[in-house]
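User: what does the whole thing look like in 3D?
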Amino acid sequence: MIANNPPNASYAELERRFARLSAVNRAGAILNWDRSTMMPDGASEDRADQLATLNVIAHEIMVAPDMPDLLACAEAASATLDPWRAANLREMRRSWAHESALPADLVEARSRATSACEMAWREARKNADFKALLPTLGEVLAITRRIGEAKAAALGVSLYDALLDEFEPGGRAVHIDALFDELRGFLPDLLGRVLDHQRSKPAPLALDGPFPVEAQRRLGEELIRIIGFDFHHGRLDVSAHPFTGGTADDVRITTRYDEADFSQSLMGVLHETGHGLYEAGLPRDWRRQPVGNARGMVLHESQSLLMEMQACRGRTFIDFAALRMRQAFGKGGPAWTADNIHGLYTRVAPGFIRVDADEVTYPLHIMLRYRLERAILAGDLALADLPGAWNDGMRELLGVVPPDDALGCLQDIHWPDGGWGYFPTYTLGALAAAQLFAAARAANPGLLASIGAGDFAPLLGWLRENVHAKGSVASTDEILTTATGSALGVAAFKAHLESRYLPA
Amino acid sequence: MIANNPPNASYAELERRFARLSAVNRAGAILNWDRSTMMPDGASEDRADQLATLNVIAHEIMVAPDMPDLLACAEAASATLDPWRAANLREMRRSWAHESALPADLVEARSRATSACEMAWREARKNADFKALLPTLGEVLAITRRIGEAKAAALGVSLYDALLDEFEPGGRAVHIDALFDELRGFLPDLLGRVLDHQRSKPAPLALDGPFPVEAQRRLGEELIRIIGFDFHHGRLDVSAHPFTGGTADDVRITTRYDEADFSQSLMGVLHETGHGLYEAGLPRDWRRQPVGNARGMVLHESQSLLMEMQACRGRTFIDFAALRMRQAFGKGGPAWTADNIHGLYTRVAPGFIRVDADEVTYPLHIMLRYRLERAILAGDLALADLPGAWNDGMRELLGVVPPDDALGCLQDIHWPDGGWGYFPTYTLGALAAAQLFAAARAANPGLLASIGAGDFAPLLGWLRENVHAKGSVASTDEILTTATGSALGVAAFKAHLESRYLPA
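Assistant: Here's the predicted 3D structure for the full assembly of 1008 residues, as structure tokens:
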């Protein structure tokens, strides 16, 4: 009768503190969303001060002098805890280990530096002026490196692994290297064959615009409502860089609209919806505790990529959605058939922009960033030399060189925002997405037919049960193994690419 | 050489703490704004938890055990402080006195109760169902009363004065009673004469709609930009109940649009702009300290009413704005002359809704609320009997009875939101507005001509210098006396009403 015993007193006090921490972090999440969507530009310094203060308050809650004792006492009595509380305690210890490794001045310095750098990045990208970003990005890098060093010492891992571990608990560069090596072993060859195959067929017809923003917004809302996005607990807005923010009860997804091309924005909205559904599906009883948080960015990215790449770019969904696209824009004719639209949505073409990349070339964008951020953090590449190294890497991996830094090393918000160690989770997420979608289809042979009928309930139900409702009760690989029968690998992803892009 | 000496160490520590407090409060202000403008309805409980937590954190900063010592030590060494720091220390003491009177459980209880009640109020008002509001409003009242009792004991004033003092430092019911008695002495007679005078002329022609929301929004933005609202430091959005929120560097004003009538929304936007300009004009060096806050709600309301009632409903501004109104809606003809529009904007008619009331009848709406909230707080009127008492009072004071509670006692957010003791500041603000506008015109004889030319710089400059830039360095009456030559009175308001509504 271990489960459901009343928790021990130290544990109860920890739950109280982590609930407060959660409230502060959730407040910060809304303020972050506002900064990217609503805030007037003159308020950035004011907002930076608010966010820095909330970060320091959160840090202080975590590093309270009695916290080590509370954790130790709760752990000593952990036999009285049911499995969820035991997992919650493990997650408390994990986040405490990360946070207590940091001196308070670095917490505030990071918050202020990334706020300043994000603002500078917006301008620098607009003007394709990498030099204008250098001072603030250098500041962010210096702080990130100090944070990485402090955490590496505390966690007993390398600097890069310490940073990665923030985004993907248990994630290690040595595993990434192995998976990425496998990918590099077949991707270039696969890409060549896909491009050959594409050249053997007529190119799909372009969709004739323009596509008014309002019609795009309505179409996106209609489709994500069908998929399961709940507007009583979420919003869809506009930001320079699409993201999912807010809280599990208040999911804020964003996109950016281009009147000349609705496709990228629409798929972006479906992508963020995958993130949003994960958040909304986290275990309701543990909303305000560490164990109720999303497991990590690999599973998070798996949910967005599963929705966008696996489900919504699949032929059955395009069959369903093509009619709605024609209605949304009042269009018809040969370009607007499901067949042609599917051709457009599965077009493979090496390009400059990661977020616009197809799923065959996308991992190559990630390998470039992974390689560069490791080199920069290790001191092997100076920040000032980033544009050149970027362009060299693009030439090598993708065979294209961006004409300016706005289309090159200035395109992503991650480094200015302090998200060093984040990029590899995108491609690990793509591997997980393929693995999970294959398992969902195996468990439910009617899954694709349901999606083709606009019924996402079977897919969402399977994801809720096998991924979302797990929160952080198990590790990424444990969740994947339970759901799919094996730990994270490349096989399902490879099979998916071959089946979609090299049809027999 | 007292001024500009380095501040004493206790004072310096207090500045550090109040800066943190300010950041927490400013974060809360943005979250409050979001709740009323952007937040999906399913997130209300989540948001209530965030705001309650921030309130408790702010409370804890204020009631830290060493705060009394810090204040006492800083006060003992206050001869070393320059006048702004001395005033800042006085304001620290004032807010500490308010906050330390409250036990933490009431702080959190108030935040949660008002969040719940505000949500219930939205539904209750929609359905004209006062009974549905009773449980949560009763909870808010009970908590408000306990807060009032605790503060009354700490401040040595009555329960009502203790609540009023939160909104208007130094405000006392005995002064309000005297000013309101004066108003009641001439308002009913004046109202009768105004209505007689109106009847002696042809009624103004109605403006022919509909007025698309987008055109209304553009017109509002155009006019407030001219007046001086800075969209680099602010936004204009939509909410059920118009308000000014956000921070001095990030002013968030709201309105609600009615496609059948643009006039109320437009004047509402000009009204909130007056609030917003006050916030934006607060002393820049003291943004994050108590002395840099707005003095109180009397001066705050004076700024909105000065802008709306004194400046923008005046004939010279209407002469300027009428052309822009015609352009905004593509209109013309006899209804759209400045003369007719001015007639509409200065039309006097007893009605149900406070926020739609003309400035002659508006004080009567306030007297009703002031009377009722004092009776309820004193236990002389049961909450369940509010609708009846409301309707009786409307009949007595305004000669009209609302057909339902949505148009009656459910129209205002203040009581559900915990703003008991707030209402009288509207009418005190109207008196201050008349007094300040008369003084500004006396100081600058070309003021009205400038406004007629769309040049608000002379008016805004005078307000910046005489009101906004003072922050809380002096009391309301000191600021008024320096700016206008006398403390708050009714003479200027009476003269204004007679000159505008009973032209010779």
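In plain terms: Residues 9-167 of chain A form one domain. The longest helix of chain A spans residues 9-37.
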